Every structure is written in C-alpha cells, then in structure tokens.
Amino acid sequence: MTRITYSLHSITNPENFGFCPDDYSRFKYGDDEVAEKFGTALAAGFINAHLKGKQPGQLVIVPSPYAFIPTATFAMKNYFVYHLNRWLAAHNHPVVQETKVHRTVTYKEDYGELDAAQRMQLIGNDSFHIDSTFLEGKTVIFLDDIRITGGHEKMILKMVAEYGLKNDIYMLYYAELKNNAIHPNIENFLNYHAVKSIFDLTAIIQRDRFFINTRIVKYILNYDYEAFCIFIQNQKPEFIQLLLNMAIGNGYHTIEAYHKNFTFVNNYLFNITLKSIENGN
C-alpha cells in the first residue's frame, strides 16, 4: 500500500493564498460555480502531477465524510469527477467509481475556529465507516477542500487501519496549510471572507447554481433568532423547504441550540402551506 498526498495550493503566507478568498468563502456556502472552478482545477493539477503516462487502474473517489447533508467538498467532487473522467475516457482508462464515508456524529461548533488539539477533541468521538469490500483491488482517492491540521485525515487513516485496507491511497486537497506559524483559525478567515452575516447568503442562495451543504444549514440554524427570522422571510419557499428537509435529515431538529430557529422554519412553512390552501392553490 502506498499513500500520496497532493494539494493544488500550499498556504505559506496568510496574505497570499494562490486562490481568491472570496471565491473560497462563497464555495463553502454553496456557490456551485466556484465548486466547478475548484474541482476542475484540482483534477487538472492531479492529472498532471500523478496520472499522465501511467496506467491508473480503477479509481474510486471518496469525498469528505457526511451523514445526510453533503459537504461543500461534495459539490467540488462532482466537477473533479467530470474533468477526470473526460481525461480517463480519452486515454482508454476506466472511468472512476464513487463511494461514501459514513459518519455518525454531528456537532454545532465552528470547526474552523479551533486549534489542532481542540479539533481532535471534537471529532475524536466520531466514527467513520466505509464499504471495504467494494474497494478491494482499487486505488482510492480521498478528496477534501482544505487540510489545516490534518485532524480529518487522521480520522480517515484511523478508519483505513481499522478496516485493514491495503489499497493505494491518494489524499487530495484543493489547498493545504504548510506554515505551522499560521494559526489554524486561518480556515475561518477564509470561510467568512465573503460571508460576514446571514444576509450575505441571499446572493449565493438565489443564484441559478446553488448547492446546499452542511455548513450553510448549520450556520443558518445557529444564527441570532431575530436576524434569522428576517432572513427566512426573504427567502423563496422552495429554499425554506429544502432547508427544513436537510435539517431533519441530519437530525438537527434534535439539537437544542437549533431548536428555536428550527421551530420557526417549521411553523413558517406550515403557515405558507395553509395560506396556499385557503387561496385555492
């Protein structure tokens, strides 16, 4: 078994990332156009660095772990696969397969604000699961948007050891923090670069290409109640319905910190439906 890490961008300077911080921020909150930009660029870089002139065999793509709501990485993964598959098909290689790492624990804390020890303490009780039989004899590509302290990578490798996986493995990232002098909360600097308040989300949500993810659902449900109520009432019913369905799917209705906002969404949708019925729609 071999394990190779590849990152398209290396963060060594807190003022120069090699990519646009506003793009990254919008990507983390569901801008699918940026997800396409990132995924395509990562695939092109990976092909040039590790696949050209080789026989890659059967590749399996595994995006960052999630329960019901996909992560921002999942959207990036889609375009990574599209670009990679075109190259594979053009060179008569088998196109990629996909699978998922299942996780069992969800949390409301903002992971990007924590240091390395706090991150491991937070995710240490989580449990990752994968279909090891499906992976037999294949090369596995674990895909994530950014590597800061390596906490999630350690959990992935712990899972690899527990399942006794013997596969060749790539750990792929759009960006990686390579300067230990930079505090891990640089991740939140990037996450919130273009999203300073809940009202900044409207421009992302109402774009033609929006991809809902775990971060935006948690951010909305955990927001100050008064501002949250104003925000929700300015959204289309289709988005509010999607928000509710995603929240329930991830079990967020059971988290006390989200209860007040969740209840408002539920009641608000009920009232919209009731008015629609009363108006004969």
Structure write-up:
With 281 residues, this protein is α/β, with parallel strands linked by helices. It has a domain at 3-194: Rossmann fold (3-Layer(aba) Sandwich), CATH 3.40.50. The chain is built from twelve helices and seven strands. A five-stranded parallel β-sheet has the order 1-7-6-2-3, sandwiched between helices. It has a two-stranded antiparallel ribbon with strand order 4-5. Helix 1 (21-28) crosses helix 2 and helix 10 packs parallel to helix 12. The chain is globular and about 60 Å long. The model has no long low-confidence stretch (mean pLDDT 92).
List keywords for this structure.
281 residues; alpha/beta; Rossmann fold; 5-stranded parallel β-sheet; two-stranded antiparallel ribbon; 7 strands; globular
Question: What is shown here, in short?
Answer:
This protein has 281 residues and is an alpha/beta fold. The protein has helices at residues 21-28, 32-51, 72-90, 116-123, 132-135, 151-163, 186-191, 202-205, 214-221, 225-233, 237-249, 259-278; strands spanning 3-11, 59-63, 97-98, 102-103, 128-129, 139-147, 169-177.
Topology:
Layout: E1 3-11, H1 21-28, H2 32-51, E2 59-63, H3 72-90, E3 97-98, E4 102-103, H4 116-123, E5 128-129, H5 132-135, E6 139-147, H6 151-163, E7 169-177, H7 186-191, H8 202-205, H9 214-221, H10 225-233, H11 237-249, H12 259-278
